[in-house]
Design brief:
The chain has 239 residues and is mainly α. 81% of the residues lie in helices and 0% in strands. The protein has one domain. The chain has eleven helices and no strands.
Length: 239
């Protein structure tokens, strides 16, 4: 039953023009723009590729929450509560949906790096980067779930955009953190997006992600997981 539900939600997401533009088209366009204006450094093209792939994945993961909020507004979640699916299965299904729809966003930017910008890595590095970014997107899916179950449809959209842009800029997904002032660099090191991108960038350099990056992402995943759980419980009392 969960599998059928995930298939349904994945099809709905991938058919959404807004999702295709925001999570796939925009990150690819920004990546190609940022890496082909005034610089031709291979290192920057590789690092930016990881950052923009992470940016697209975050946007895709958060979009799960937007869909939930819209479903709540039209009564779809109320209908799900009277089906044989348990509340836990519904939440798991949505989380699995998020893990699937981040893949096109990641793949599109990585393909742009390889085909258009000529980024070259060993086959194992391409696979490891894709896997690390895929697994590392979980905290953002949980954040999207929390926003979707707690907020109205309109508010969820605004909050998700603010979260995506704010975390992308402060986390260094668009620009190197080396350009930040010292205080902002410290703040950036504690953001989930900074450490999320670090997972992939370490692998492009042939090294394993640091324990600090894994620890920070794990803590954020736990916090966002608690937020998503509490939001779902509150939504149950309102519907």
């Amino acid at each position: 039953m969960i599998t059928a539900y995930v298939r349904l939600e994945v099809r709905r997401s991938l058919r959404d023009v807004g999702f295709a533009i925001g999570s796939i088209g925009v990150p690819v366009m920004m990546y190609l723009l940022f890496t082909n204006l005034g610089t031709d450094e291979a290192v920057w093209k590789t690092a930016s590729m990881v950052g923009m792939a992470a940016y697209g994945a975050v946007n895709a993961a958060l979009s799960v929450g937007t869909g939930i909020a819209e479903d709540r507004s039209v009564g779809w979640l109320r209908q799900l509560r009277i089906t044989p699916m348990t509340p836990r299965q519904v939440v798991i299904g949505r989380a699995l949906t998020g893990s699937v729809i981040v893949l096109p966003a990641l793949t599109a930017v990585l393909l742009a790096g390889a085909v258009v910008n000529g980024v070259r890595m060993a086959a194992w590095q391409w696979a490891a980067v894709a896997l690390a970014l895929w697994l590392g997107s979980l905290p953002f899916t949980l954040l999207g779930l929390g926003n979707g179950y707690r907020l109205s449809a309109q508010t969820t959209g605004v909050v998700n955009v603010a979260c995506n842009l704010g975390l992308a800029v402060v986390g260094g997904l668009w620009f190197p953190v080396e350009l930040f002032p010292d205080w902002l660099r410290v703040v950036s090191s504690y953001t989930p997006t900074n450490r999320f991108a670090e997972l992939g960038r370490a692998l492009t350099e042939g090294s394993a992600p640091g324990l600090a990056a894994i620890a920070v992402i794990t803590v954020w995943a736990l916090l966002f997981g608690l937020y998503a759980t509490d939001s779902y419980r509150r939504s149950g009392r309102r519907t």
